[in-house]
Amino acid sequence: MLGSLSNYRQILLHSGNELFLSPPTARTPPESDSITEKADHTLSPFGHGIAGMGAGWTVSFIASPIEHIKARLQTQYHRAGHVASGSATTVAPVKYTGPIDCAQQIVRNHGFFKLWHGLQSTLIFRTFFFFWWSSYDIFSRTLAKRTNMSTPAINFWAGGLSAQGLCLQHLYVLVECFVGFSCLIDAFWRKQNETCIYSKFQD
Questions:
Q1: What pTM does this model have?
Q2: What one-character-per-residue DSSP string does 112-167 give?
Q3: pLDDT of 72 above 70
Q4: β-bridge partners, 85
Q5: pLDDT in tens, 8-50
Q6: Of 10-19, 65-74, 87-96, 142-151, the least confident
Q7: Which of 158, 99, 172, 170 is nearest to 128 (CA)?
Q8: What b-and-e string marks burial along 63-81, b requiring 16 or more CB atoms within 10 Å of the CB?
Q9: Beta carbons within 10 angstroms of residue 191's beta carbon
Q10: Whole-angstrom Cα distance, residue 6 to residue 12?
Q11: Which of 57, 89, 124, 141 has an alpha carbon within 20 to 30 A of 178's alpha carbon?
């Protein structure tokens, strides 16, 4: 992902579009040993966000088949239980013996492009990379301007804070879509209804 992220940054940087560039007075780039190249820091937070979103979309086409196969393997755990067969107890066979077998069965039964089933959801998920990389740039600039931290420390804290923000955004969207945020609060903090978090899955 970082390779495509760097390429998108360079494309936006050389586009000359002021929408993606920071004014010269606002540039506070970290030192050259930062995770991003020094020239890349002439991009505005919006430009970094667009580059991050593009990188997320690009990697989706590689990650989507892997995540699809992983999900199928993870949800067949119930097949590995013991079942009674007359007087004997045997182990129920699993549908997929491994990732390669899973991919082969998907292609054989549904076609090659079915490996990308769920691509739309993956693209939506990685659209939030816009907020991840734009906030990373904002945190980096703010810490460089207002603290005396070293560049590695700035990269560490900016990366951690922006990643936590990304996780919180994903959590809110997932909970709001499948559970309901108020329900989550009741279940975990107020503890008025411990089964509330599962109620929407029954509908």
A1: 0.62
A2: GGGGGTTHHHHHHHHHTHHHHHHHHHHHHHHHHHH----HHHHHHHHHHHHHHHHH
A3: yes
A4: 88
A5: 888 888 887 887 888 664 444 444 444 444 444 488 889 999 9
A6: 87-96
A7: 170
A8: bbbeebbeebbeeeeeeee
A9: 9
A10: 10
A11: 57
